[in-house]
Amino acid sequence: MYLIRLPDDQPVQWLFVDSDPMLEGCLLEIQRHVEFIDEAAANAGALSFNKDSENGSRVVLGRSIAKPSLYKRFIQTTECEQTDVEVLPGKALALSSWSLYSATCSVPHSVMLGRWSNRRKQVVAQAPFEPSGNN
After folding, report:
1. Is the pLDDT of residue 57 over 90?
2. 113 or 128: whose pLDDT is higher?
3. Angle 104-101-9 from CA coordinates, rounded to 5°
4. Residue 56: strand, helix, or coil
5. Counting C-beta atoms within 10 Å of the first and last residue's C-beta, which end of the chain has fewer, N or C?
6. Percentage with pLDDT > 70 across the chain
7. Residue of 118 and 29 predicted with greater confidence
């Protein structure tokens, strides 16, 4: 699984996808080989997508302190704080592909190219595209 870190002005800031987003033209910050567990989807009940409830519960995304490649979306309550995770700001979503997100959310071309920050050069330097030569 891959994690794409999106700008704060996007509807989602943490996008988890199954297929390689670089092969679909995404040049944003990408983390490979991550795990995503969505406990909130199974336990949400009256809670909606990343909204606070009346009793202080809210859906949050956390990253494991012991295993930083493990992310978990869960319901955090005021009575029960999880100490084994770092709570991350923003909303999280898991989809099959980057292209599904970019088409659904009408991602601006500048965001698709990673021009919202200087991280584009870092991503390209970390994982350059190499043509297969099988054309």
Report:
1. no
2. 113
3. 90
4. coil
5. C
6. 63
7. 29
- The DSSP result for 31-47, as a single string, is E-S-EEEEHHHHH-TT-
Tell whether 104 is covered by a domain: yes
pTM: 0.70
Q: Is 69 within the bounds of a domain?
A: yes
End-to-end CA separation in angstroms for the chain: 27
The domain total for the chain is: 1
| pLDDT tens per residue across span 76-117 | 765 556 678 898 999 999 999 998 888 887 665 445 544 444
Cβ-contact 54, 19 below 8 angstroms: no
Q: Are 78 and 42 in contact (CB under 8 A)?
A: no
Do the strands 70-76 and 35-38 form a parallel or antiparallel pair, or are they unpaired?
Answer: parallel
Contacts with 90 (C-beta within 8 Å, 6 or more apart), sequence order? 8, 12, 13, 14, 61
Q: Which domain range does residue 29 map to?
A: 2-126
Reference 27, options 121, 90, 106; nearest CA is: 121
Average pLDDT, the chain: 74
